[in-house]
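User: Please run a holo structure prediction.
Assistant: Happy to. Please share the sequence and the ligand.
User: Here you go; the ligand is adenosine-5'-triphosphate.
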Amino acid sequence: MREFIQAVVYFYNYLKRYWRGLLFAMIAVLVGTYAQIKAPVYLGQAITALATYLGEYLNPTTHHQASMNGFYNALWAMVFFYGLTEIGLVASGLITSRISAKSTGEMRVSLFSKLQKMTIRYFDTHQDGKILSLFTSDLDNIFNAMNQAIFQVFSQGLLFLGVIWMMFEQSAIMAWVTMALTPIAILVALVIIRRARYHITHQQQAISRMNGYINEQVNGEKIIITEGLQQESIRNFDPYNEKVKEETYKGQVYSGMLMPLMQGLSLLNLAIVIFFGSWLVLHSGMSKATGLGLVVVFVNYSQQYYQPISQLTSIYNMLQLAITGAGRLTKVKAEPEEVDQARGTVLPALKNGVQLDQVRFGYNTKQEILHDVSIDVQKGQMVALVGPTGSGKTTVMNLLNRFYDVNSGQITFDGVDIRQVDLKSLRDQVGIVLQESVIFSRSIAENIKFGKPNATDKEMIGAAKQANIHEFIMSLPEGYQTQVSDENSVFSTGQKQLLSIARTILTNPDFLILDEATSNVDTVTETKIQEAMNNVIAGRTSFVIAHRLKTILGADKIVVLKDGRVIEQGTHNQLLAEHGFYADLYHNQMVFE
Ligand SMILES: Nc1ncnc2c1ncn2[C@@H]1O[C@H](COP(=O)(O)OP(=O)(O)OP(=O)(O)O)[C@@H](O)[C@H]1O
Protein backbone atom coordinates (compact mmCIF):
# COMPACT_ATOMS: atom_id res chain seq x y z
CA MET A 1 0.00 0.00 0.00
CA ARG A 2 2.90 2.33 0.84
CA GLU A 3 4.39 1.64 -2.59
CA PHE A 4 1.04 2.43 -4.21
CA ILE A 5 0.71 5.76 -2.39
CA GLN A 6 4.30 6.59 -3.28
CA ALA A 7 3.53 5.91 -6.94
CA VAL A 8 0.39 8.04 -6.84
CA VAL A 9 2.38 10.95 -5.36
CA TYR A 10 5.12 10.43 -7.95
CA PHE A 11 2.68 10.48 -10.87
CA TYR A 12 0.73 13.38 -9.39
CA ASN A 13 3.89 15.51 -9.19
CA TYR A 14 4.65 15.04 -12.85
CA LEU A 15 1.10 15.06 -14.20
CA LYS A 16 -0.37 17.98 -12.28
CA ARG A 17 0.97 20.56 -14.72
CA TYR A 18 -0.90 18.78 -17.54
CA TRP A 19 -4.26 18.98 -15.80
CA ARG A 20 -5.86 20.80 -18.73
CA GLY A 21 -4.79 18.16 -21.24
CA LEU A 22 -5.81 15.38 -18.87
CA LEU A 23 -9.19 16.98 -18.33
CA PHE A 24 -9.64 17.22 -22.07
CA ALA A 25 -8.61 13.57 -22.49
CA MET A 26 -11.11 12.57 -19.81
CA ILE A 27 -13.91 14.50 -21.46
CA ALA A 28 -12.99 12.85 -24.77
CA VAL A 29 -13.10 9.42 -23.07
CA LEU A 30 -16.39 10.31 -21.45
CA VAL A 31 -17.94 11.40 -24.75
CA GLY A 32 -16.43 8.40 -26.61
CA THR A 33 -17.65 5.91 -24.02
CA TYR A 34 -21.09 7.47 -23.87
CA ALA A 35 -21.32 7.24 -27.66
CA GLN A 36 -20.07 3.66 -27.54
CA ILE A 37 -22.83 2.55 -25.18
CA LYS A 38 -25.47 4.68 -26.87
CA ALA A 39 -24.85 3.38 -30.42
CA PRO A 40 -26.31 -0.10 -29.81
CA VAL A 41 -29.61 1.53 -28.72
CA TYR A 42 -29.95 2.98 -32.24
CA LEU A 43 -28.86 -0.30 -33.73
CA GLY A 44 -31.76 -1.86 -31.82
CA GLN A 45 -34.11 0.86 -33.03
CA ALA A 46 -32.97 0.34 -36.61
CA ILE A 47 -33.64 -3.39 -36.32
CA THR A 48 -37.02 -2.74 -34.74
CA ALA A 49 -37.89 -0.26 -37.50
CA LEU A 50 -36.72 -2.70 -40.17
CA ALA A 51 -38.66 -5.56 -38.64
CA THR A 52 -41.78 -3.40 -38.42
CA TYR A 53 -41.33 -2.33 -42.00
CA LEU A 54 -40.77 -5.89 -43.19
CA GLY A 55 -43.77 -7.06 -41.24
CA GLU A 56 -45.92 -4.43 -42.90
CA TYR A 57 -44.27 -5.02 -46.26
CA LEU A 58 -45.20 -8.70 -46.19
CA ASN A 59 -48.76 -7.59 -45.51
CA PRO A 60 -49.49 -5.37 -48.59
CA THR A 61 -52.68 -3.90 -47.13
CA THR A 62 -50.84 -2.07 -44.29
CA HIS A 63 -47.70 -0.91 -46.08
CA HIS A 64 -46.50 2.54 -44.79
CA GLN A 65 -43.49 4.48 -45.96
CA ALA A 66 -43.10 5.98 -42.42
CA SER A 67 -41.60 2.90 -40.80
CA MET A 68 -38.69 2.95 -43.29
CA ASN A 69 -37.89 6.56 -42.27
CA GLY A 70 -37.56 5.41 -38.69
CA PHE A 71 -35.06 2.80 -39.87
CA TYR A 72 -32.92 5.39 -41.71
CA ASN A 73 -33.02 7.84 -38.81
CA ALA A 74 -31.90 5.17 -36.37
CA LEU A 75 -29.21 4.03 -38.77
CA TRP A 76 -27.80 7.54 -39.13
CA ALA A 77 -27.88 8.04 -35.38
CA MET A 78 -26.01 4.76 -34.94
CA VAL A 79 -23.33 5.76 -37.48
CA PHE A 80 -23.05 9.16 -35.75
CA PHE A 81 -22.55 7.60 -32.33
CA TYR A 82 -20.07 5.01 -33.55
CA GLY A 83 -18.18 7.83 -35.30
CA LEU A 84 -18.20 9.86 -32.10
CA THR A 85 -16.84 6.82 -30.24
CA GLU A 86 -13.89 6.66 -32.60
CA ILE A 87 -13.23 10.41 -32.43
CA GLY A 88 -13.39 10.40 -28.62
CA LEU A 89 -11.07 7.41 -28.24
CA VAL A 90 -8.56 8.57 -30.86
CA ALA A 91 -8.47 12.12 -29.40
CA SER A 92 -7.94 10.91 -25.85
CA GLY A 93 -5.29 8.43 -27.07
CA LEU A 94 -3.39 11.21 -28.84
CA ILE A 95 -3.52 13.50 -25.82
CA THR A 96 -2.41 10.84 -23.36
CA SER A 97 0.45 9.75 -25.65
CA ARG A 98 1.66 13.34 -25.81
CA ILE A 99 1.36 13.88 -22.06
CA SER A 100 3.05 10.53 -21.30
CA ALA A 101 5.97 11.26 -23.64
CA LYS A 102 6.41 14.76 -22.23
CA SER A 103 6.22 13.80 -18.59
CA THR A 104 8.48 10.74 -19.04
CA GLY A 105 10.93 13.10 -20.74
CA GLU A 106 10.80 15.35 -17.69
CA MET A 107 11.28 12.35 -15.40
CA ARG A 108 14.36 11.36 -17.44
CA VAL A 109 15.87 14.85 -17.15
CA SER A 110 15.12 15.00 -13.45
CA LEU A 111 16.64 11.54 -12.89
CA PHE A 112 19.75 12.43 -14.86
CA SER A 113 20.17 15.74 -12.98
CA LYS A 114 19.73 13.90 -9.71
CA LEU A 115 22.41 11.38 -10.68
CA GLN A 116 24.80 14.22 -11.42
CA LYS A 117 24.39 15.37 -7.82
CA MET A 118 24.76 11.94 -6.23
CA THR A 119 27.48 11.09 -3.77
CA ILE A 120 30.44 8.92 -4.69
CA ARG A 121 29.08 6.57 -2.02
CA TYR A 122 25.98 6.04 -4.18
CA PHE A 123 28.02 5.13 -7.25
CA ASP A 124 30.33 2.93 -5.18
CA THR A 125 27.40 0.95 -3.82
CA HIS A 126 25.19 0.65 -6.92
CA GLN A 127 25.98 -1.44 -10.00
CA ASP A 128 26.19 0.44 -13.33
CA GLY A 129 23.60 -1.91 -14.82
CA LYS A 130 21.10 -1.14 -12.07
CA ILE A 131 21.56 2.62 -12.53
CA LEU A 132 21.10 2.22 -16.27
CA SER A 133 17.94 0.18 -15.81
CA LEU A 134 16.32 3.16 -14.07
CA PHE A 135 16.50 4.93 -17.42
CA THR A 136 15.55 1.95 -19.52
CA SER A 137 13.13 -0.49 -17.93
CA ASP A 138 11.74 1.66 -15.10
CA LEU A 139 11.03 4.72 -17.22
CA ASP A 140 9.73 2.51 -20.06
CA ASN A 141 7.32 0.79 -17.68
CA ILE A 142 6.15 4.14 -16.39
CA PHE A 143 5.62 5.41 -19.93
CA ASN A 144 3.61 2.31 -20.89
CA ALA A 145 1.46 2.63 -17.80
CA MET A 146 0.78 6.31 -18.36
CA ASN A 147 0.19 5.86 -22.05
CA GLN A 148 -2.08 2.86 -21.76
CA ALA A 149 -2.90 1.51 -18.34
CA ILE A 150 -4.00 4.65 -16.51
CA PHE A 151 -6.06 5.67 -19.51
CA GLN A 152 -7.47 2.15 -19.80
CA VAL A 153 -8.44 2.00 -16.13
CA PHE A 154 -10.50 5.11 -16.69
CA SER A 155 -11.99 4.24 -20.07
CA GLN A 156 -12.66 0.55 -19.35
CA GLY A 157 -14.06 1.36 -15.90
CA LEU A 158 -16.34 3.93 -17.47
CA LEU A 159 -17.38 1.51 -20.19
CA PHE A 160 -18.16 -1.18 -17.63
CA LEU A 161 -20.34 1.11 -15.50
CA GLY A 162 -21.88 2.76 -18.56
CA VAL A 163 -22.87 -0.57 -20.12
CA ILE A 164 -24.51 -1.67 -16.84
CA TRP A 165 -26.43 1.60 -16.62
CA MET A 166 -27.54 1.44 -20.27
CA MET A 167 -28.56 -2.20 -19.97
CA PHE A 168 -30.83 -1.43 -17.02
CA GLU A 169 -32.25 1.52 -18.94
CA GLN A 170 -33.21 -0.82 -21.77
CA SER A 171 -34.42 -3.87 -19.89
CA ALA A 172 -33.65 -4.84 -16.30
CA ILE A 173 -34.37 -8.51 -16.88
CA MET A 174 -32.13 -8.70 -19.96
CA ALA A 175 -29.44 -6.79 -18.01
CA TRP A 176 -29.45 -9.50 -15.30
CA VAL A 177 -29.27 -12.20 -17.96
CA THR A 178 -26.27 -10.50 -19.62
CA MET A 179 -24.51 -10.19 -16.30
CA ALA A 180 -25.29 -13.77 -15.30
CA LEU A 181 -21.75 -15.06 -15.78
CA THR A 182 -20.09 -12.13 -13.95
CA PRO A 183 -19.13 -14.06 -10.77
CA ILE A 184 -17.47 -16.78 -12.86
CA ALA A 185 -15.70 -14.14 -14.99
CA ILE A 186 -14.36 -12.29 -11.95
CA LEU A 187 -13.27 -15.50 -10.26
CA VAL A 188 -11.46 -16.69 -13.39
CA ALA A 189 -9.84 -13.23 -13.79
CA LEU A 190 -8.63 -13.15 -10.19
CA VAL A 191 -7.15 -16.66 -10.32
CA ILE A 192 -5.39 -15.94 -13.59
CA ILE A 193 -4.08 -12.53 -12.46
CA ARG A 194 -2.64 -14.14 -9.34
CA ARG A 195 -0.88 -16.86 -11.31
CA ALA A 196 0.35 -14.45 -13.98
CA ARG A 197 1.64 -12.07 -11.35
CA TYR A 198 3.51 -14.87 -9.61
CA HIS A 199 5.30 -15.89 -12.80
CA ILE A 200 5.93 -12.33 -13.99
CA THR A 201 7.58 -11.44 -10.66
CA HIS A 202 9.74 -14.56 -10.96
CA GLN A 203 10.47 -13.74 -14.59
CA GLN A 204 11.73 -10.28 -13.61
CA GLN A 205 13.92 -11.69 -10.88
CA ALA A 206 15.30 -14.27 -13.31
CA ILE A 207 16.01 -11.55 -15.91
CA SER A 208 17.76 -9.44 -13.30
CA ARG A 209 19.95 -12.39 -12.26
CA MET A 210 20.70 -13.21 -15.91
CA ASN A 211 21.65 -9.58 -16.62
CA GLY A 212 23.93 -9.60 -13.60
CA TYR A 213 25.66 -12.70 -14.97
CA ILE A 214 26.00 -11.19 -18.48
CA ASN A 215 27.35 -7.95 -16.99
CA GLU A 216 29.93 -9.81 -14.92
CA GLN A 217 31.02 -12.01 -17.82
CA VAL A 218 31.34 -9.08 -20.24
CA ASN A 219 33.43 -7.17 -17.70
CA GLY A 220 35.59 -10.22 -17.15
CA GLU A 221 35.83 -11.12 -20.83
CA LYS A 222 39.61 -10.58 -20.94
CA ILE A 223 40.20 -13.11 -18.17
CA ILE A 224 37.68 -15.51 -19.73
CA ILE A 225 39.51 -15.33 -23.08
CA THR A 226 43.02 -15.62 -21.63
CA GLU A 227 42.02 -18.54 -19.43
CA GLY A 228 40.05 -20.16 -22.28
CA LEU A 229 36.88 -20.29 -20.21
CA GLN A 230 34.43 -19.42 -23.00
CA GLN A 231 32.73 -22.83 -23.07
CA GLU A 232 32.39 -22.82 -19.29
CA SER A 233 30.92 -19.32 -19.45
CA ILE A 234 28.36 -20.46 -22.08
CA ARG A 235 27.52 -23.55 -20.00
CA ASN A 236 26.96 -21.46 -16.89
CA PHE A 237 24.71 -19.13 -18.83
CA ASP A 238 22.28 -21.97 -19.57
CA PRO A 239 20.56 -22.24 -16.15
CA TYR A 240 19.98 -18.46 -16.06
CA ASN A 241 18.50 -18.51 -19.53
CA GLU A 242 16.42 -21.62 -18.79
CA LYS A 243 14.84 -19.94 -15.78
CA VAL A 244 14.01 -16.81 -17.79
CA LYS A 245 12.57 -18.96 -20.59
CA GLU A 246 10.44 -21.03 -18.22
CA GLU A 247 9.05 -18.10 -16.25
CA THR A 248 8.43 -16.00 -19.38
CA TYR A 249 6.54 -18.90 -20.93
CA LYS A 250 4.39 -19.52 -17.83
CA GLY A 251 3.76 -15.80 -17.33
CA GLN A 252 2.68 -15.45 -20.96
CA VAL A 253 0.51 -18.58 -20.82
CA TYR A 254 -1.45 -17.16 -17.89
CA SER A 255 -1.66 -13.54 -18.94
CA GLY A 256 -2.49 -14.56 -22.52
CA MET A 257 -5.19 -16.91 -21.25
CA LEU A 258 -7.53 -14.32 -19.83
CA MET A 259 -8.54 -12.69 -23.09
CA PRO A 260 -9.66 -15.91 -24.90
CA LEU A 261 -11.34 -17.20 -21.72
CA MET A 262 -13.30 -13.98 -21.36
CA GLN A 263 -14.18 -14.13 -25.05
CA GLY A 264 -15.38 -17.68 -24.50
CA LEU A 265 -17.50 -16.57 -21.55
CA SER A 266 -18.85 -13.65 -23.51
CA LEU A 267 -19.80 -15.98 -26.40
CA LEU A 268 -21.47 -18.37 -23.97
CA ASN A 269 -23.27 -15.41 -22.54
CA LEU A 270 -24.25 -14.38 -26.05
CA ALA A 271 -25.99 -17.70 -26.54
CA ILE A 272 -27.81 -17.23 -23.21
CA VAL A 273 -28.81 -13.69 -24.18
CA ILE A 274 -30.11 -14.80 -27.59
CA PHE A 275 -31.91 -17.78 -26.11
CA PHE A 276 -33.52 -15.84 -23.29
CA GLY A 277 -34.17 -12.81 -25.51
CA SER A 278 -36.02 -14.96 -28.04
CA TRP A 279 -38.03 -16.54 -25.25
CA LEU A 280 -38.94 -13.06 -24.02
CA VAL A 281 -39.96 -11.97 -27.54
CA LEU A 282 -42.21 -14.98 -27.91
CA HIS A 283 -43.72 -15.02 -24.42
CA SER A 284 -43.87 -11.42 -23.20
CA GLY A 285 -46.37 -8.80 -24.23
CA MET A 286 -43.89 -6.69 -26.27
CA SER A 287 -44.17 -6.43 -30.03
CA LYS A 288 -42.02 -8.89 -31.97
CA ALA A 289 -40.17 -6.07 -33.77
CA THR A 290 -39.28 -4.32 -30.46
CA GLY A 291 -38.21 -7.64 -28.98
CA LEU A 292 -35.97 -8.36 -31.95
CA GLY A 293 -34.35 -4.92 -31.59
CA LEU A 294 -33.81 -5.57 -27.88
CA VAL A 295 -32.08 -8.89 -28.56
CA VAL A 296 -29.71 -7.19 -31.02
CA VAL A 297 -28.96 -4.43 -28.47
CA PHE A 298 -28.09 -6.99 -25.81
CA VAL A 299 -25.98 -9.06 -28.21
CA ASN A 300 -23.87 -5.90 -28.47
CA TYR A 301 -23.84 -5.14 -24.75
CA SER A 302 -22.93 -8.69 -23.94
CA GLN A 303 -19.66 -8.22 -25.87
CA GLN A 304 -18.97 -4.76 -24.45
CA TYR A 305 -19.68 -5.90 -20.89
CA TYR A 306 -16.96 -8.59 -20.79
CA GLN A 307 -14.34 -6.49 -22.58
CA PRO A 308 -13.16 -4.52 -19.49
CA ILE A 309 -12.78 -7.72 -17.46
CA SER A 310 -10.57 -9.27 -20.15
CA GLN A 311 -8.34 -6.17 -20.15
CA LEU A 312 -7.75 -6.52 -16.42
CA THR A 313 -4.56 -8.63 -16.54
CA SER A 314 -2.68 -6.47 -18.97
CA ILE A 315 -3.71 -3.29 -17.13
CA TYR A 316 -2.84 -4.84 -13.79
CA ASN A 317 0.59 -6.03 -14.96
CA MET A 318 1.41 -2.69 -16.53
CA LEU A 319 0.36 -0.81 -13.41
CA GLN A 320 2.29 -3.16 -11.15
CA LEU A 321 5.51 -2.64 -13.13
CA ALA A 322 4.98 1.12 -13.13
CA ILE A 323 4.35 1.19 -9.39
CA THR A 324 7.60 -0.70 -8.77
CA GLY A 325 9.43 1.66 -11.16
CA ALA A 326 7.98 4.76 -9.51
CA GLY A 327 8.98 3.35 -6.12
CA ARG A 328 12.59 2.92 -7.29
CA LEU A 329 12.71 6.42 -8.79
CA THR A 330 11.23 7.94 -5.61
CA LYS A 331 13.97 6.19 -3.64
CA VAL A 332 16.63 7.65 -5.95
CA LYS A 333 15.09 11.10 -5.50
CA ALA A 334 15.38 10.78 -1.74
CA GLU A 335 19.11 9.89 -1.87
CA PRO A 336 21.36 12.49 -0.23
CA GLU A 337 22.95 14.88 -2.68
CA GLU A 338 26.61 15.58 -2.97
CA VAL A 339 26.99 19.03 -4.37
CA ASP A 340 25.43 21.43 -1.97
CA GLN A 341 26.67 24.39 -3.93
CA ALA A 342 25.26 27.27 -1.96
CA ARG A 343 26.46 26.19 1.48
CA GLY A 344 29.59 27.08 3.40
CA THR A 345 32.31 29.64 2.98
CA VAL A 346 34.14 29.94 -0.30
CA LEU A 347 37.65 28.59 0.08
CA PRO A 348 40.33 31.18 -0.72
CA ALA A 349 43.56 30.16 -2.50
CA LEU A 350 45.74 27.91 -0.33
CA LYS A 351 48.22 29.92 1.75
CA ASN A 352 49.67 27.64 4.44
CA GLY A 353 48.79 24.01 3.95
CA VAL A 354 46.51 21.02 4.33
CA GLN A 355 46.19 18.91 7.48
CA LEU A 356 44.61 15.57 8.31
CA ASP A 357 44.06 15.67 12.03
CA GLN A 358 43.38 12.38 13.87
CA VAL A 359 41.13 11.18 11.10
CA ARG A 360 39.02 8.08 11.62
CA PHE A 361 36.90 6.72 8.81
CA GLY A 362 35.03 3.66 7.58
CA TYR A 363 32.92 3.17 4.44
CA ASN A 364 30.33 1.54 6.66
CA THR A 365 29.67 1.40 10.38
CA LYS A 366 30.96 -2.17 10.67
CA GLN A 367 34.57 -1.63 9.67
CA GLU A 368 36.90 1.29 10.38
CA ILE A 369 39.45 1.70 7.58
CA LEU A 370 41.54 4.68 8.75
CA HIS A 371 42.54 4.86 12.40
CA ASP A 372 43.80 8.14 13.80
CA VAL A 373 45.55 9.32 10.66
CA SER A 374 47.38 12.67 10.95
CA ILE A 375 49.31 14.11 8.01
CA ASP A 376 50.56 17.65 7.57
CA VAL A 377 51.33 19.14 4.12
CA GLN A 378 52.84 22.61 3.82
CA LYS A 379 51.99 24.75 0.80
CA GLY A 380 54.20 23.83 -2.15
CA GLN A 381 55.24 20.50 -0.64
CA MET A 382 54.90 17.12 -2.24
CA VAL A 383 53.74 14.36 0.06
CA ALA A 384 53.90 10.76 -1.07
CA LEU A 385 51.57 8.14 0.33
CA VAL A 386 52.97 4.62 0.22
CA GLY A 387 51.88 1.35 1.73
CA PRO A 388 50.71 -2.14 0.84
CA THR A 389 47.58 -2.70 -1.14
CA GLY A 390 44.44 -2.06 0.90
CA SER A 391 46.32 0.07 3.43
CA GLY A 392 44.00 3.06 2.80
CA LYS A 393 45.87 5.31 0.34
CA THR A 394 42.93 5.82 -2.03
CA THR A 395 40.68 6.28 0.98
CA VAL A 396 42.79 9.25 2.14
CA MET A 397 42.40 10.71 -1.35
CA ASN A 398 38.62 10.18 -1.24
CA LEU A 399 38.48 12.12 2.03
CA LEU A 400 40.71 14.98 0.88
CA ASN A 401 38.35 15.72 -2.00
CA ARG A 402 35.38 15.21 0.31
CA PHE A 403 33.95 12.29 -1.63
CA TYR A 404 33.24 10.96 1.86
CA ASP A 405 33.17 12.68 5.26
CA VAL A 406 35.40 11.64 8.14
CA ASN A 407 33.83 9.84 11.10
CA SER A 408 35.93 11.79 13.58
CA GLY A 409 38.90 14.14 13.49
CA GLN A 410 39.07 16.70 10.69
CA ILE A 411 40.68 17.67 7.41
CA THR A 412 41.56 21.35 7.11
CA PHE A 413 42.68 23.70 4.33
CA ASP A 414 44.51 26.60 5.99
CA GLY A 415 42.89 25.60 9.27
CA VAL A 416 39.32 25.57 7.86
CA ASP A 417 37.47 22.27 8.20
CA ILE A 418 36.50 21.20 4.68
CA ARG A 419 33.03 20.28 5.96
CA GLN A 420 32.44 24.02 6.53
CA VAL A 421 33.50 24.93 3.02
CA ASP A 422 31.47 25.40 -0.15
CA LEU A 423 32.09 22.13 -1.98
CA LYS A 424 32.49 23.63 -5.41
CA SER A 425 35.19 26.00 -4.21
CA LEU A 426 37.02 23.04 -2.65
CA ARG A 427 36.78 20.99 -5.84
CA ASP A 428 37.93 23.98 -7.90
CA GLN A 429 41.16 24.02 -5.93
CA VAL A 430 41.75 20.29 -6.00
CA GLY A 431 42.92 18.54 -9.15
CA ILE A 432 42.89 14.76 -9.32
CA VAL A 433 44.67 12.41 -11.67
CA LEU A 434 43.09 9.03 -11.14
CA GLN A 435 44.68 5.65 -11.70
CA GLU A 436 41.88 4.74 -14.08
CA SER A 437 41.85 7.43 -16.74
CA VAL A 438 38.49 8.21 -18.28
CA ILE A 439 38.03 8.96 -21.95
CA PHE A 440 34.80 10.69 -23.00
CA SER A 441 33.21 10.20 -26.42
CA ARG A 442 34.38 13.37 -28.13
CA SER A 443 37.53 14.82 -29.75
CA ILE A 444 40.92 14.71 -28.02
CA ALA A 445 40.81 18.52 -27.74
CA GLU A 446 37.45 18.39 -25.97
CA ASN A 447 38.75 15.61 -23.74
CA ILE A 448 41.66 17.76 -22.57
CA LYS A 449 39.40 20.80 -22.16
CA PHE A 450 36.87 18.75 -20.16
CA GLY A 451 37.51 20.55 -16.85
CA LYS A 452 37.91 23.96 -18.49
CA PRO A 453 35.82 24.11 -21.67
CA ASN A 454 36.60 27.78 -22.30
CA ALA A 455 40.39 27.22 -22.41
CA THR A 456 42.09 28.47 -25.58
CA ASP A 457 43.74 26.04 -28.01
CA LYS A 458 47.12 27.56 -27.07
CA GLU A 459 46.53 26.78 -23.38
CA MET A 460 45.36 23.29 -24.27
CA ILE A 461 48.43 22.55 -26.41
CA GLY A 462 50.65 23.98 -23.66
CA ALA A 463 49.10 21.54 -21.18
CA ALA A 464 49.48 18.63 -23.60
CA LYS A 465 53.16 19.53 -24.09
CA GLN A 466 53.78 19.64 -20.33
CA ALA A 467 52.02 16.29 -20.05
CA ASN A 468 54.30 14.83 -22.75
CA ILE A 469 51.40 13.78 -24.98
CA HIS A 470 51.52 16.54 -27.63
CA GLU A 471 53.84 14.69 -30.00
CA PHE A 472 51.76 11.56 -29.93
CA ILE A 473 48.55 13.51 -30.61
CA MET A 474 50.22 15.32 -33.51
CA SER A 475 51.26 11.97 -34.99
CA LEU A 476 47.59 11.06 -35.43
CA PRO A 477 46.15 11.99 -38.87
CA GLU A 478 43.50 14.24 -37.36
CA GLY A 479 45.59 15.47 -34.44
CA TYR A 480 43.61 17.12 -31.66
CA GLN A 481 40.39 16.66 -33.63
CA THR A 482 40.63 12.85 -33.56
CA GLN A 483 37.38 11.48 -32.19
CA VAL A 484 37.94 9.07 -29.33
CA SER A 485 35.78 7.08 -26.95
CA ASP A 486 36.28 4.40 -24.35
CA GLU A 487 35.57 1.70 -26.95
CA ASN A 488 37.50 3.45 -29.68
CA SER A 489 40.49 4.73 -27.79
CA VAL A 490 43.70 5.39 -29.67
CA PHE A 491 45.56 5.54 -26.37
CA SER A 492 47.50 2.98 -24.40
CA THR A 493 47.00 2.88 -20.61
CA GLY A 494 50.07 5.05 -20.06
CA GLN A 495 48.98 7.53 -22.73
CA LYS A 496 45.53 7.73 -21.17
CA GLN A 497 47.17 8.78 -17.93
CA LEU A 498 49.21 11.41 -19.77
CA LEU A 499 45.94 12.75 -21.20
CA SER A 500 44.50 12.91 -17.66
CA ILE A 501 47.57 14.80 -16.53
CA ALA A 502 47.13 17.28 -19.41
CA ARG A 503 43.49 17.70 -18.39
CA THR A 504 44.53 18.48 -14.82
CA ILE A 505 47.36 20.83 -15.80
CA LEU A 506 44.86 22.84 -17.84
CA THR A 507 42.59 23.42 -14.84
CA ASN A 508 45.62 24.71 -12.92
CA PRO A 509 44.64 23.50 -9.44
CA ASP A 510 46.41 24.71 -6.28
CA PHE A 511 46.25 21.35 -4.68
CA LEU A 512 46.90 18.14 -6.53
CA ILE A 513 46.14 14.51 -5.86
CA LEU A 514 47.87 12.05 -8.12
CA ASP A 515 47.09 8.37 -8.08
CA GLU A 516 49.87 6.78 -10.04
CA ALA A 517 48.86 4.12 -12.57
CA THR A 518 49.86 0.66 -11.40
CA SER A 519 49.63 -1.03 -14.76
CA ASN A 520 52.80 -2.03 -16.42
CA VAL A 521 53.85 0.58 -18.91
CA ASP A 522 56.96 0.40 -21.09
CA THR A 523 60.02 2.27 -19.87
CA VAL A 524 59.69 5.04 -22.48
CA THR A 525 56.11 5.78 -21.37
CA GLU A 526 57.12 5.44 -17.75
CA THR A 527 59.78 8.11 -18.19
CA LYS A 528 57.22 10.28 -19.98
CA ILE A 529 54.73 9.83 -17.12
CA GLN A 530 57.45 10.65 -14.62
CA GLU A 531 58.36 13.85 -16.47
CA ALA A 532 54.70 14.81 -16.85
CA MET A 533 54.13 14.21 -13.15
CA ASN A 534 57.11 16.36 -12.28
CA ASN A 535 55.73 19.11 -14.53
CA VAL A 536 52.28 19.00 -12.99
CA ILE A 537 53.61 18.84 -9.43
CA ALA A 538 56.09 21.69 -9.83
CA GLY A 539 55.01 24.70 -7.77
CA ARG A 540 51.91 22.94 -6.42
CA THR A 541 50.96 21.36 -3.14
CA SER A 542 50.50 17.69 -3.89
CA PHE A 543 49.61 14.29 -2.57
CA VAL A 544 51.01 11.46 -4.65
CA ILE A 545 49.86 7.90 -4.17
CA ALA A 546 52.90 6.02 -5.30
CA HIS A 547 53.17 2.41 -6.28
CA ARG A 548 56.69 2.60 -7.71
CA LEU A 549 58.88 4.03 -5.01
CA LYS A 550 61.49 5.39 -7.37
CA THR A 551 58.94 7.96 -8.57
CA ILE A 552 58.77 9.62 -5.16
CA LEU A 553 62.37 9.67 -3.99
CA GLY A 554 62.40 13.46 -4.13
CA ALA A 555 59.19 13.90 -2.11
CA ASP A 556 59.28 16.41 0.75
CA LYS A 557 57.60 13.86 2.94
CA ILE A 558 56.81 10.18 2.57
CA VAL A 559 53.92 8.88 4.67
CA VAL A 560 53.78 5.12 5.13
CA LEU A 561 50.35 3.67 5.70
CA LYS A 562 49.71 0.15 6.92
CA ASP A 563 46.28 -1.25 7.83
CA GLY A 564 44.87 2.27 7.92
CA ARG A 565 47.51 3.68 10.32
CA VAL A 566 50.45 5.98 9.68
CA ILE A 567 53.42 3.91 10.76
CA GLU A 568 56.29 6.04 9.46
CA GLN A 569 56.80 9.59 8.16
CA GLY A 570 59.85 11.41 6.82
CA THR A 571 62.02 11.98 3.78
CA HIS A 572 63.36 9.08 1.76
CA ASN A 573 66.75 9.27 3.46
CA GLN A 574 65.26 9.60 6.97
CA LEU A 575 63.05 6.57 6.41
CA LEU A 576 65.90 4.50 4.96
CA ALA A 577 67.95 5.36 8.02
CA GLU A 578 65.16 4.09 10.26
CA HIS A 579 65.47 0.60 8.69
CA GLY A 580 61.74 0.16 9.18
CA PHE A 581 58.84 -0.88 6.95
CA TYR A 582 59.63 1.68 4.21
CA ALA A 583 63.28 0.65 4.05
CA ASP A 584 62.21 -3.00 3.59
CA LEU A 585 59.63 -2.03 0.97
CA TYR A 586 62.21 0.04 -0.92
CA HIS A 587 64.90 -2.64 -0.89
CA ASN A 588 62.41 -5.29 -1.99
CA GLN A 589 61.24 -3.15 -4.91
CA MET A 590 64.75 -2.33 -6.00
CA VAL A 591 65.49 -6.05 -6.22
CA PHE A 592 62.59 -6.48 -8.68
CA GLU A 593 63.24 -3.32 -10.73
N1 LIG B 1 33.86 1.88 -1.59
C1 LIG B 1 34.30 1.09 -0.61
N2 LIG B 1 33.41 0.51 0.23
C2 LIG B 1 33.84 -0.29 1.24
N3 LIG B 1 35.13 -0.57 1.48
C3 LIG B 1 36.05 -0.04 0.67
C4 LIG B 1 35.70 0.82 -0.40
N4 LIG B 1 36.82 1.22 -1.03
C5 LIG B 1 37.84 0.65 -0.35
N5 LIG B 1 37.38 -0.10 0.67
C6 LIG B 1 38.17 -0.83 1.64
O1 LIG B 1 39.06 0.07 2.28
C7 LIG B 1 40.34 -0.49 2.47
C8 LIG B 1 41.39 0.47 1.93
O2 LIG B 1 41.21 0.55 0.54
P1 LIG B 1 42.02 1.60 -0.36
O3 LIG B 1 41.45 1.53 -1.73
O4 LIG B 1 42.03 2.91 0.32
O5 LIG B 1 43.47 0.97 -0.33
P2 LIG B 1 44.75 1.38 -1.18
O6 LIG B 1 45.84 1.51 -0.18
O7 LIG B 1 44.47 2.53 -2.04
O8 LIG B 1 44.97 0.07 -2.04
P3 LIG B 1 45.62 -0.08 -3.52
O9 LIG B 1 47.08 0.14 -3.36
O10 LIG B 1 45.33 -1.52 -3.83
O11 LIG B 1 44.93 0.87 -4.43
C9 LIG B 1 40.33 -1.85 1.81
O12 LIG B 1 40.19 -2.81 2.83
C10 LIG B 1 39.09 -1.84 0.94
O13 LIG B 1 38.49 -3.11 0.95
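The chain has 19 helices and twelve strands.
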